[in-house]
Amino acid sequence: MRISTTRSALLAGAVAVTLSATALPAAFAAPSATAVISEVYGGGGNSGATLTRDFVELANAGSAAYDLSGFSVQYLPGAPSAGSLWQISALTGSVAPGGRYLVAQAAGTGGTVALPAPDATGTVAMSATAGTVALVSGTTPLTCKTAADCAADTRVVDLVGYGTAVVREGSGPAKGASATASVARAASLADTDDNAADLAAATPSPVNAAGETSGGGEDPGDPGNPTEPGTVRIHDIQGTTRVSPLDGKPVTGVPGVVTAVRTSGSRGFWIQDTAPDADPRTGEGVFVYTGSAAPAVKVGDSVLVSGTVDEYYPSATTQSVTEITAPKVTVVSSGNALPAPVVLDAKAVPSKYVPSAGGGSIDALPLEPSTYALDLYESLEGTRVQIADTRVTGATTAYHEVWVTVAPKQNPTRRGGTLYASYTDQNTGRIKVLSLDPATPVPTANVGDVLSGTTSGVLDYDSYGGYNLQATALGTLTDHHLRREVTRKQKGKELAVATYNVENLDALDDQTKFDTLAEGVAVNLSSPDIVSLEEIQDDNGAVNDGTVGSEATLKRFTDAIVAAGGPRYSWRYVAPQDGKDGGEPGGNIRNVFLFNPERVGFVDRPGGDATTPVAAVKTKKGVTLSVSPGRIAPASAAWDDSRKPLVGEFRFHGKSVFVVGNHFASKGGDQPLHGRYQEPVRSSETKRVQQAKEVNTFVKSLLAADKSARVVVLGDLNDFAFSPTVGALTDGNVLKPLITTLPKNEQYSYVYEGNSQTLDHILTSPGVLRFDYDVVHINAEFADQASDHDPQIVRVDVNAPDHGHGHGGHGHHGHH
After folding, report:
1. Is 82 exposed, middle or buried (0-12, 13-18, 19+ CB in 10 A)?
2. Which strand (E) or helix (H) includes residue 560?
3. What is the pLDDT of residues 90-105, one digit of tens each?
4. Which SS3 state, helix, strand or coil, does residue 324 take?
């Protein structure tokens, strides 16, 4: 099995590990007398290797069986970057006293000898020369990137760093790993928590729980070059569920016609059977993975393919792609006609999205392609498909991918997108399109444009959005000339308050980014009185040298706004403590208020800093803040490694207005909509709900002191209007989410994987009696964008009389 670590590159390698019921260097638990990682090999399938795949071997030096249920083996690159993630291989069963346990990892295209039958199969392509393997109690990914941090994680049972690995036990990593050598523990299985001393270079010698060695369990032998088809067809490989019934098994002489070839990234080619069976569940196409080798076939070749069937999981939570790996290919004839493509349109795609497994894996569920869209797409994995005249619902990305819908009547937005309406109402017609020919990438398209005519190719699956059409023939772009919106200017008596996520802006960014964002404020937002900014970084961005100020960044930004015709804004923020607010390492991200001092006053109340909480103060004239600007409950665990809300007290036409700028925790780590676990777990939601409760508590404290206080809560909440996060924020009806005042087909400010949705919000307290609200679409629907978020604005009449009608106002569309 293989796992994808980047869009374009796969690591190569293999690992064998011996389990240790303890852990790591200096600060690790006592060395293990039971389960240890005994051997690690990352060279499987590499050039010069004998074995065809990587492995991790575990061993038990104890006198009783060691239960591995719920455990995992995890892998980290030798020199992890900020974006490196631990890759997980789940374990089951146990390792006998004195016994071994074999975890098979990625297969390459080299080697001739298979592993013995593995006891567990992972998806990790390990480096042959440097990496870290951990035996972990649990299947939650580790987050540590240093030896010390991993030593402090009590879930780590044993750990082996090899080559030049940064994360290792003791004095240094185990030495000598290569394409032909593993690192292995001595026969005594002694564990002193020093990788350099405990493991040494060895000839790879994987042993499974049955005591079998290489060639004992899954060696396909040499299939030679058959000239007649074998007994297995592609539909036998694909089976009636998401996982092949032949996973891990050798196949010989599988017949098919080459329908498409991929020459970059994950190289290989697709074949399709020209004599399909009658079962709509069993796919007739399959990907043949050639690894680093360029495919030596052409479209139209009739071939016989021998190799090993493998389920490739692009990541730990995605569905898998069924493949034939380590292939040997016989070309029988060339220039053959291709099977007719399956037409995907609104009639073909079911209205239900995916079956439920109560949060568990759907891998083993029989496919129901006439009932569920993801089952239909799975049944067509590797098969030729065709779409026609499809509307673009997600603009062309930097990776030359575009999202379209084959079901144009599903939840359409006013500007041509597809609205993400609820967790249970998924848009089944969304498909990502990319070109297999690097010389003719998909055209640059905005939401609402149409990919006219027919687009055809093979249906594939990846972790970046799920099912996608790898196009061999592209339709032509019909430009629907989507325009960036310009909102109306506020009237003299209206206080205009906006929110804008400016996507990690810092003083080292190009002037073009400053100018484009500034035009958005000055022109498209018509120069609001107050702009709450998210994602302002410190002045040197990702440079991690203790800098926390943002003065140079904000000077450049406000200068650019003046140059774009806007006012000379002043600013207020509370600088974070270095490294405490999450975001890009070294970036010290924070929320900032810009305000136009010609129109609105800022009430400065000293004492606000990174650690001082702001409080509501009741006075005879109403409520004020204890500090301004200030932060809400900065010591609360809700804000650990996250941006703290910024609170400011403003004066407009003699009235106080309290503004709370927010940037809640991201949705990173949530299981994907298209993944193998259904319904997906939204693990990141827990923290956002805690954050929302803190803001809700603070707003309640303001309203307890003055029930008519005018409060505007806004920012990037990283969650939907129908989410528990927004529910917690509005608890007690203290805040009204203005996005819900718009017509349904306008309730969005962000586009993700072809879904138009809302992560950004403006909410107002009952004291805001008359308002006019607008989402100003200038970024999210466009291929050329200064930020991935659209800004929003509310214009408040602070002197609106209270006629007893409660919370009034309306949403508004932006003018072109």
Report:
1. exposed
2. helix 551-563
3. 998 899 988 999 999 9
4. strand
